[in-house]
Amino acid sequence: MLYTGKGDGGTTKVFGCDQQRISKSSELPEALGALDELNAFLGFVKMRSLAEPLVAEIVRDVQETLFIIQAEVAGADKKVSDEVVKKIENIVNGIEKEIPPIKGFSIAGGTELSALLDVARTLSRRAERRLVAVVEAEVRLLSDATKAYMNRLSSLLFALARLVNHLAGVKEENPRY
Question: Which long-range contacts (CB under 8 A, 24 or more apart) does 96-105 make?
Answer without folding.
Answer: 96/159, 98/163, 98/166, 99/159, 99/162, 99/163, 99/166, 100/166, 100/172, 103/172, 103/174, 104/174, 104/175, 105/174, 105/175
